[in-house]
Design a protein that fits this description.
By secondary structure, this protein is an alpha/beta fold. The protein has a domain at 16-157 and 183-215 and 260-269: 3-Layer(aba) Sandwich (Rossmann fold). Helices cover 40% and strands 24% of the residues. Strands 1, 2, 3, 4, 5, 6, 7 and 8 form an eight-stranded mixed sheet that branches. α7 packs antiparallel against α10 (235-250). The termini are far apart.
Length: 271
């Protein structure tokens, strides 16, 4: 049996090529396993950014299209950038019925800037992957003078603390680097930090933040699929970890309730 104290490499990839392939092993489950962005936050962001069907959105890191479809349904034109080829293929499939949506297999860093073209720059749980020195300046440069930055966030879905305490023993045994529980207060602090960074960038103003507490119920199978999209796990350690987690979770029933904060940050280009 593998040493239960084996460490897992969970750090973010250091270069663009590693980032490009980061989610490939879980590309097929990502779209369905990750919670959807709350409809009311999508609608609020549309209103705050004054979007209409004759306008255009540049989406950064669209993944398999988790947020893309919700905005595509508005009838807006969308250019979506996604560096992961597996995600790009899935996003193209999910958006096939929206002719005004174009998805390009490229990173924001590599994308050739189209200056002052878009009414909004959108990113859903992906903005932090881009270098700080690029993400704000290039986003602002791509926006029209009256354009808006829209950042959607679903923070980490977590079980009730008493359930997590039961799971912590398994994490300590097989993946001690994953021992972490945020809770609503910490997640609120994380969101405040995201907003502060937008303002301090100097490229955007009039920041508006809307957030909501969300709850979802997952089967144990789907919860483990969700976990596989949140952390990079070596196959052997993943098998041991997930077996241990399943044994603990089955003591609480055949499903698990998860809570997390969702939010949207909307800010106007500082022109």
């Amino acid at each position: 049996m593998q040493d239960p104290q084996q460490k897992i490499n969970t750090r973010a990839p250091r270069n663009s090529e590693q980032r490009r392939k980061w989610y490939s092993p879980v590309a097929d489950v990502y779209y369905n396993a990750r919670p959807q962005y709350p409809r009311d936050l999508v609608e609020q962001s549309v209103g705050l950014a004054q979007l209409s069907s004759d306008q255009s959105i540049l989406e950064l890191g669209c993944g398999p299209g988790n947020a893309t479809v919700a905005f595509a349904e508005l009838g807006v034109s969308m250019k979506c950038l996604e560096p992961n080829p597996d995600f790009c293929h899935l996003a193209q499939r999910h958006c096939a019925s929206y002719p005004k949506v174009a998805i390009e297999n490229t990173s924001f860093e590599e994308w050739e800037l189209e200056s002052k073209k878009f009414n909004a720059v959108l990113s859903a749980n992906a903005f932090h992957w881009m270098p700080t020195e690029i993400r704000y300046a290039k986003s602002a440069a791509a926006l029209r003078d009256d354009g808006f930055l829209i950042l959607l966030w679903n923070l980490t879905p977590e079980p009730k603390y008493e359930v997590y305490q039961a799971l912590e023993e398994v994490y300590q045994a097989y993946a001690p680097s994953l021992v972490r529980y945020e809770g609503p207060k910490t997640q609120a602090q994380i969101l405040r930090g995201f907003g502060q960074e937008i303002v301090e960038s100097g490229f955007f103003k009039e920041l508006v933040v809307e957030q909501t507490a969300c709850e979802v119920i997952y089967s144990i199978d789907y919860y483990l699929k969700l976990l596989s999209t949140l952390r990079r796990l070596e196959p052997q350690v993943k098998a041991l970890l997930f077996t241990g987690l399943r044994e603990k979770l089955e003591k609480f029933g055949d499903s698990i309730q998860l809570s997390f904060l969702s939010a949207v940050h909307v800010a106007r280009k500082n022109g």
